[in-house]
């Protein structure tokens, strides 16, 4: 059995642990406030304020002072500009995300092909083969810039589309090699010309706004000027009842409704009961008329 420690030794060990002799406690990470999308909240507030100002201007604003009205008009214009900028930014982000993968893979394929052609060009000594490789290398380099600098806000047209015939005749060659001498989209020629002007010209093409045709503008104006469609009172709850009340009565006393009793001849339960009561009352009247000039005369 082991010996017990003395009282002084036990106190000494406790003091050492108290002053950092033991294990150090893990330092707590500082608390960070969770990031909130402030721009989305501000945009919602701006839209709400813009709708309020539009409703104000749609009413009789003759009581508003001229200087105050001018200030509110400027505020509304600023809000509309901010809303349009936010919508354009979102549309740009959506378009970039939509075609990101196809652009990325086509750029990688064209880059790989360009490296292979450069390697062959360094190894060859034949002038004709060298000229052919230079022409192919130029096409591959333009393909790289096409995948990078194609306008973000326009639908991307693939350089290497996959067809059913190509799937059947696939011989193991890379897609960039098979499509090296195939037809290119019109934007390819534009990018080939802008490469001579430098990277700034290519970046302007990349960020350009899509062109709006005159037909699209005319269609947009017509849609804005289109009058609102009024609700058909005959389809409303009270309108339908009023129309039924105006319909002419038949011999049985039921309303002749188009599409129900007038054309198909099928009556609902209420109309059948009403018709039966009318027929019974009519038969009773005829019976009383026939008995009127009988025994008591």
Description:
This protein is 63% helix and 0% strand. It has 297 residues and is mainly α. Among the domains are: 57 residues; 102 residues, no CATH class; 37 residues, no CATH class. Helix 4 runs antiparallel to helix 5. The protein is extended. It starts with 6 loop residues before the first helix and ends in a 6-residue tail after the last helix. The C terminus is likely disordered. Pfam families: Efg1. One of its GO terms (biological process) is maturation of SSU-rRNA from tricistronic rRNA transcript (SSU-rRNA, 5.8S rRNA, LSU-rRNA).
How much helical structure, as a percent, in the residues? 55-70%
Structural class estimated from helices and strands:
mainly alpha
- Total DSSP E strands: 0
Query: What's the assembly state of these chains?
Result: single chain
Count of helical regions: 12
**Spatial shape:** extended
Span of the ends, CA to CA: 144 Å
Mean of pLDDT: 75
**Relative strand content:** under 5%
Largest sheet: none
Please write the string of helix (H) and strand (E) elements.
Answer: HHHHHHHHHHHH
Low-confidence parts: 239-263, 293-297
How large, in whole angstroms, is the Cα Rg?
43 Å
Describe, in short, the structure shown.
The N and C termini lie far apart (144 Å).
Layout of strands and helices, then pairs:
Elements (H helix, E strand, L loop, with lengths): L6 H15 L16 H21 L7 H33 L1 H24 L3 H23 L14 H5 L6 H4 L7 H9 L4 H8 L7 H12 L11 H10 L22 H23 L6
Helix pairs in contact: 2-3, 4-5, 5-8
């Amino acid at each position: 059995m082991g010996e017990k420690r003395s009282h002084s030794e036990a106190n000494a060990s406790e003091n050492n642990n108290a002053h950092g002799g033991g294990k150090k406690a893990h330092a707590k990470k500082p608390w960070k406030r969770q990031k909130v999308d402030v721009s989305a909240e501000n945009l919602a507030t701006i839209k709400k304020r813009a709708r309020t100002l539009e409703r104000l201007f749609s009413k009789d604003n003759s009581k508003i002072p001229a200087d105050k009205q001018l200030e509110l008009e400027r505020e509304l214009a600023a809000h509309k500009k901010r809303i349009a900028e936010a919508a354009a930014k979102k549309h740009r982000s959506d378009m970039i995300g939509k075609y990101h993968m196809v652009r990325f893979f086509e750029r990688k394929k064209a880059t790989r092909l360009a490296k292979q052609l450069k390697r062959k060009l360094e190894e060859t000594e034949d002038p004709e083969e060298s000229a052919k490789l230079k022409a192919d290398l130029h096409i591959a380099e333009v393909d790289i810039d096409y995948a990078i600098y194609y306008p973000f806000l326009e639908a991307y047209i693939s350089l290497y589309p996959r067809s059913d015939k190509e799937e059947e005749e696939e011989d193991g060659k890379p897609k960039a090699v098979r499509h090296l001498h195939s037809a290119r989209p019109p934007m390819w020629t534009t990018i080939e010309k802008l490469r001579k002007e430098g990277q700034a010209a290519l970046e302007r093409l990349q960020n350009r706004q899509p062109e709006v045709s005159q037909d699209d503008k005319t269609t947009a104006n017509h849609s804005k000027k289109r009058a609102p469609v009024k609700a058909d009172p005959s389809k409303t709850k009270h309108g339908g009842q009023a129309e039924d009340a105006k319909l002419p009565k038949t011999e049985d006393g039921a309303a002749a409704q188009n599409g129900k009793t007038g054309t198909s001849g099928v009556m609902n339960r209420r109309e059948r009961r009403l018709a039966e009561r009318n027929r019974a009352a009519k038969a009773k009247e005829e019976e009383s008329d026939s008995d009127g000039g009988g025994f008591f005369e």
